[in-house]
Write a structure and sequence with these properties.
Structural class: alpha/beta
CATH topology of the largest domain: Aspartate Aminotransferase, domain 2
Strand order of the largest sheet: 4-10-9-8-7-5-6
Helix content: 40-55%
Distance between the termini: 39 Å
CATH architecture of the largest domain: 3-Layer(aba) Sandwich
Shape: globular
CATH superfamily of the largest domain: Type I PLP-dependent aspartate aminotransferase-like (Major domain)
Number of helices: 15
Largest sheet: 7 strands, mixed
Radius of gyration: 21 Å
Amino acid sequence: MATTSDLTRLTTTHPMMDAVIEEQVGRRIRVGDRWLTDWASCNYLGFDLDPEIIDSVPEYLAAWGTHPSWSRLLGNPRMYPEIEEQLTELLGSEDTLLLPTITHIHMSVIPVLVGDGTIFLDGRAHKTIYDGAMVAAGHGATVVRFRHNDWAHLEELLSASDPGVPRIVAMDGVNSMTGNAPDLVEFARVARGHDAILYVDDAHGFGVIGERSPDESCDYGNRGNSVIRYVGEDYDHVILVAGLSKAYSSLLAFIALPTRLKDALKVLAPPYLYSGPSPVASLATALAGLEVNRARGDELRADLWRKTHRLLDALHGLGIHTPNRSGFPIIEIPLADHDTIDDVGRYLFEHGQYATMAAYPLVPKDEVGFRIQTTAANTDEEIDELIAVLGRLQERFQLEPTASVAL
C-alpha cells in the first residue's frame, strides 16, 4: 500500500479517478453535472460509436442470445472460428486463438510457454505481463529482468543463460504510456539467435499501425495489423498477443501462434476451459469491425494520424515535453513536480478535459503526469479546446519543458 499511496489517494479523492460516467454523446461524457471531452478512451478508431458496427449487434443477439456460456473446449459459436480465420489472414500468422482478455492470456499462456525455464522480462513490461511471469515463477520458472528496450543487455543475459531450458523474452509492443515501440527487429534477431521466443503484447498498436507500403495514406501504415508487421517482421520465434478492446472496442483478445501450440493451449490454458466466453455483442462487433477495417480502416487511421499530429505539433509549439517520439496516438505529458498531480488533474477536470492521470507507480516519479489518447471520433474543435487548456495549464503549473525550452 505504501508503494501505491499516490495512486490510492487519487482514487479516493480525485474526480477523474474511479468516476461514475452518467452519459456519453460522441466523445463527450458527463460526470455528475459536468460535461468533459474524453481523452482517456482507448477506442482509437472510434468503432464504439460507429453506426454500422452498432447496427450489426441485434441480429447476432437474436440468433445466439446474450451469452452462450459453453466452455470453449466443449463448443464454440460459429463467430469464434470466423474471427480467428479473419485475424489469421489480417496478421499473416500461422494461426490465431481467441480468449476473452489479454490478462487471461498472460496469466495462462506465459506459464505454459516457459514451464520451468526462464522468462526475460523487459524492465517496464506492462503489469499484466509481470503478473503472468509471477504466476510462472510460482510454477518453477526463473524471472530475469533486462533494462527497458535494451536489446544489447538482453543479449548479454541470454548468452549467460542455460540454453537447455525454454526461454521467453516478454515485452510490450507500443508502450501504453509513452506511445513508443521498441526496436523489435533487433529483439527478434537476438531471440532467434538464442533459440528463444519473443512474446510481444501489442494491445495499443494493433488496429492503429500495420504493414508499410508505398501507397499508405499515413505513416501508421496499412491494415492496422500490429507492430510486428509495421516493422517488417514475421512470426519466426515470435508470438504476438493483442486485444480487440482498444481499437476494435470489443471484449476479446487473441494470440497469434503456430497451430500446434494453439491445439495444446486448448487443453493447457485454463481460460479456454473454465472462463466464461466473450459476450455475443463483443463477438458481433469484432466481426463487424473487421469488415469496417477492410472497407475504410486506412481512412480512419489517416484521420487519427492527422488529429494526433495536430496535438503533437501544438505541444512542440508550446514548449511542452512528451516522451512520444513515434507519432502514435498515446501522448504522455509529464509534470516538472510530481506533487502537483492532484491540482493539475483538477484543473483539467474543471476545464472540461478528461484524461488518464499517470501517478506513481504506474510510471516512474520523474514521469508522473497525465496521458492523452486521441481517437478518430474526437473532433477538431475538441482538439482546439484541449490545446487552449494545455496552454493555460502550462502558465499556471509546471509541465516538463521540451529540451529546447529548457536550454
